[in-house]
């Protein structure tokens, strides 16, 4: 009896929390699909605002996708070897480096962007390129990739597995790609999930680093809410959800599939 009551209370609390988070999202989505938000559903449903957002801000959406994919590629190429190096290193400075990796997360994004502007802002072509924003995204998301991969490597007993592979004559390259990478795949996928979502939704760094020609989705979203009708901003939010949610589901599905294979 007590366990059933406890379960009911926990379920009720969970549902209340879900409603608290989902109701504002649902209202924003409906605002982007109604002819007039202040009149409500009585004004009728329409895709007019979605089409208007696509006509005005399609370039920001494609740029955000390109930034997220480029950021993911760089963080994998840099983060996985970095995590492996931290795992294998027995020196004291390795722990210091691991802690320093959290600095871009702890420091406000505006401060990171200001530092990048002071260091590289004088290079005009680089400053006006989307690559400038990419640097900021990589600095912000790299710790999440390294942490996710390193935590999996620490629990996968990689040193013992590598020693067994080496005893069978496997070279370093064979051990890295045949032992380390497969056994770290769940961490790589978890890091990829965080990197892609954080890059697409990152605003503070991007807002400081962007130019009128390099607006990303979050910057365009803020611009639409500030200068357009509420329905346009809400339609922009709808497009953001339609783009991000399937991506999250796909990455989580890939993670579960990888865990089942191992």
TrEMBL record:
GO terms for biological process: transmembrane transport. The chain crosses the membrane at residues 61-87, 99-123, 129-150, 176-200, 235-255. InterPro entries: MetI-like (IPR000515), MetI-like_sf (IPR035906). Residues 61-251 form the ABC transmembrane type-1 domain. Keywords: Cell inner membrane, Cell membrane, Membrane, Transmembrane, Transmembrane helix, Transport. CDD domains: TM_PBP2. It is a multi-pass membrane protein. GO terms for cellular component: plasma membrane. SUPFAM superfamilies: MetI-like. It is found in: Cell inner membrane; Cell membrane. Belongs to the binding-protein-dependent transport system permease family. This is ABC transporter permease. It comes from Vreelandella aquamarina. The lineage of its organism: Bacteria, Pseudomonadati, Pseudomonadota, Gammaproteobacteria, Oceanospirillales.
């Amino acid at each position: 009896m007590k366990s059933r009551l406890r379960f009911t209370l926990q379920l009720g609390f969970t549902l209340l929390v879900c409603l608290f988070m989902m109701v504002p999202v649902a209202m924003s989505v409906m605002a982007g699909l109604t002819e007039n938000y202040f009149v409500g559903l009585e004004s009728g449903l329409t895709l007019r605002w979605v089409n208007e957002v696509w006509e005005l801000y399609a370039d920001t959406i494609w740029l955000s996708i390109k930034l997220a994919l480029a950021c993911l590629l760089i963080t994998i190429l840099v983060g996985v070897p970095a995590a492996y190096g931290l795992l294998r290193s027995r020196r004291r400075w390795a722990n210091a480096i691991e802690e320093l990796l959290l600095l871009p997360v702890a420091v406000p994004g505006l401060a990171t962007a200001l530092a990048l502007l002071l260091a590289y802002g004088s290079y005009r072509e680089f400053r006006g390129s989307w690559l400038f924003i990419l640097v900021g995204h990589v600095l912000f998301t790299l710790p999440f990739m390294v942490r996710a991969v390193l935590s999996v490597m620490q629990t996968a007993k990689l040193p013992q597995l590598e020693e067994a592979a080496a005893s069978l004559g496997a070279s370093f390259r064979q051990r890295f790609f045949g032992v380390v990478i497969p056994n770290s795949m769940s961490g790589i996928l978890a890091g990829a999930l965080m990197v892609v979502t954080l890059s697409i939704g990152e605003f503070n760094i991007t807002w400081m680093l962007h130019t009128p020609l390099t607006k990303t989705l979050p910057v365009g979203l803020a611009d639409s809410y500030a200068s357009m009708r509420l329905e346009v901003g809400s339609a922009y939010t709808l497009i953001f959800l339609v783009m991000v949610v399937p991506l999250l589901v796909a990455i989580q599905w890939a993670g579960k599939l990888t865990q089942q294979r191992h």
